Amino acid sequence: MSNPDIWKNGEFVAFEDATVHVLTHALHYGTSVFEGVRCYNTAKGSAIFRHAEHMQRLIDSARIYRMDLGYSQEELEQAVIDTIVRSGLKECYIRPLSYRGHGAMGVNPYNNPVETIIAVWKWGAYLGPEALENGVDVHVASWNRMAPNTFPSLAKAGGNYLNAGLVKMDAVLSGFTEGIMLSTSGHVAEGSGENLFLVKDGKLFTAPVSLSILPGITRDSICTLARDMGLSVEEALIPREALYIADEVFFTGTAAEVTPIRSIDHHTIGSGKRGEITERLQSAYFDILHNGNDPYGWLTPVPVG
User: Which residues pair with 199 in a beta bridge?
Assistant: First the structure.
């Protein structure tokens, strides 16, 4: 099967024709914002998970960086649906991206056009299919999450992920699957592309947004599911050593979904396998995504096939 067509600036172009100029502003200065979204082939048909929230975050990210997308949220949502339908994929990863294009060179981006693309492709479990059950081995990164008032962490911006790339590369080179970043104050922040939860004595803890983490949509979903199960969820300053004595630790994210952490810095977490609370939350999350049992209205149906 050939690669699906890509939506670019309001029209579809062939995959091989979706190119940019080498002097595109975003290539030189990181001036892009993007989203990661998933469409699932549920038992009740194809559906996008929390579509509106992802498109709203794209618009918010663009607003922070003074980028006028030129499209309403409704237009962007429909463009995503049209792209999936055109692709014929019943299940896919979705990448909306808005960036400053080719124009005047220099740090000032105002004279460069804002362009928007939407691409879809097949993408399985981000940290490996076996990781969803067996967990992953991670370490605490030597690179910190950026300090507040340096980069806007509420924006999902391309330039922010240079930090994440350093963390991921160091983890892989050191024999780990992923890295955990600390804040500049030394508290637990998040992974390179995931939010993080710690379970201790039946309670869930996660970092506050004030530590420059990205406020993940999957993170918010897990908080909702946990509270509806009667579990306590607290945003708290988590010291590094709390990771080593946690009962359970897990990542959340659109790509990572809900992935348990087996060890951190060679410290075995809990029993060294997926914990009870992680499994309960994972099951509730996947019941929505795979079975289509959605009491929250988080799924947007897509008429594929």
Answer: 204, 248
Average pLDDT over residues 188-212: 97
CA–CA gap between residue 33 and residue 275 (Å, rounded): 35
In this structure, are residues 100 and 34 in contact, taking their beta carbons and an 8 Å threshold?
no
Nearest Cα neighbor of 11 from 108, 160, 118 is 118
**156 catalytic per annotation:** yes
Q: Which of 90, 156, 203, 273 is catalytic?
A: 156
How far is CA 36 from its chain centroid? 6
Stated pTM of the model: 0.95
Fold of 6-121: D-amino Acid Aminotransferase; Chain A, domain 1 (3.30.470)
What the block records as the tokens of 96 is: 């909306």
Cα separation, 163 vs 108, in Å, equals 22
Q: Classify residue 219 by its DSSP letter.
A: H
- Give the domain 131-291 fold: D-amino Acid Aminotransferase; Chain A, domain 2 (3.20.10)
Residues of the chain with CATH 3.30.470.10: 6-121
pLDDT at 1: 63
Structure tokens at 232: 């306590």
pLDDT value at 127 more than 90: no
User: What residue spans in the chain does CATH classification 3.20.10.10 cover?
Assistant: 131-291
Tell me the percentage of the chain whose pLDDT exceeds 90. 95
Give per-residue pLDDT as tens, 209-237: 999 999 999 999 999 999 999 999 999 99
